[in-house]
Amino acid sequence: MEAQSGHPKGLYVLFITEMWERFSYYGMRAIFMLYMIKSLAFDAATASNIYGSYTGLVYLTPLIGGFVSDKYWGNRRSIFVGGLLMALGQFTMFFSASNSGNPSLAHPLLYLGLCFLIFGNGFFKPNISTMVGQLYSEGDKRVDSAFTIFYMGINLGAFFSPLVCGYLGENIGYQWGFLAAGIGMVVSVVFFEFTKNKYIVTADGVGIGLHPSKKESKTTDVESVKVSSSYIAMWVVIEIIVVTIFKNFLNMDIIGSFIFATAIVGPLYIIMDKSLSKDERERILAIYVIAFFVIFFWACFEQAGASLTIFADKNVDRHFMGTIIPASFFQSVNAVAIVIFDPIFAWLWIYLGKKNLEPASPIKQAIGLFLLSLSYFVIAFGVQGVSATTKVSMMWLMSLYILQTFGELCLSPIGLSMVNKLAPLRFASLLMGVWFLSNAAANKFAGSLSALIPLDAKTGEYITTHFMGFYTIANLHDFFMLFMAMSLGASILLFVMYKWLAKLMHGIH
Question: Which pTM value belongs to this model?
């Protein structure tokens, strides 16, 4: 059955399910840094590193969730379990904030809640994204448009959640913000469970996501993904070796070492599968190359929940019409801009496609990185020469978020669609997990970069920090120029590598 827009109704079921899940995630994220700094009295560097470890692991566990779904549970059961774990995590955060005056209780509850959220996201995130692609037959030209619509659902949730959870957290109590996020997650799970059997189906009415991929693929594919325990043990040893290298020789913390090691070993495990044909292996390699570049995008973009929240709280004039806008509210700017501009970008790609002028996916992503670099150049200009205690106009921060929105619309929904089109069916959820694995590395990197902000979170005075021992950061201008340089360099390199990537993709754009 088709909706009036020409898309299956199941798309809109997944849209609403994801919207409420994102309400939960972004609502918690909006107040997470502020809760750690203002209620738990963590310094900016400590809070940033916890934030990076949490958001990094949130995007690492989809590799586990995708594997379990493909091999054992199927998409539907994975989504249900993941949703319940995330709801439990938000309610645990509620109890942590309710006991913030008792660190011996609040801190363990904080870490326990984060663990529930991390593993819940792992089961939920890759599977719901995979189901969007499964609503369409192979070669269906509506897939790109479907992921763009789906992405709007993500950002509707991301728009409302900082306003609701942020208001409750900053004005009444952080526990009430976490409670609202937990209720949103419950709504997501209940809605999905009551509508999935009727609408999450193929054009022929067959239920999607009921069984693991191995039961839905050909026998030859099933046999090819069977591996021996000794083979798995070999990869576990490789993982341990790489973790040790990051920990002992590159001086990373254990979570960062594990994330970056998995970001290397996980993709290698998949691409070395003997069942892959030459074309399949090259297409998977294309996914990996693009995923590497988007690490730089998300590392800069995810400052929204970390250093940019500190910046909004300490250095932005938030007075408006006689009131003070909560610092968390600025995280809604990106989301509302996406809701406004998403249809325009969707129309633009269709218009350019009709004239055979639509850029290929890697070019769109390079453009996204360039726009990201421009956003940091703008805000670096806005804070140039100001003292640590000077509060700048909120328009500088809003301009940054709007420019980043344009970059995100070029990069993120197109990336999800690209993975769906390039990945072999038997590795669909697992490779979607690899795509989110790049986000894991990016988010951990984002936390490490946020820790370099040259501000004392308590006094607001400038402090000096150093990036990799060679770049000194003495003020906010230096800090934002670091992000500008990183994203601009990645954009240029991706433009240069496009022709090689096009060969790896074998005509799939």
Answer: 0.85
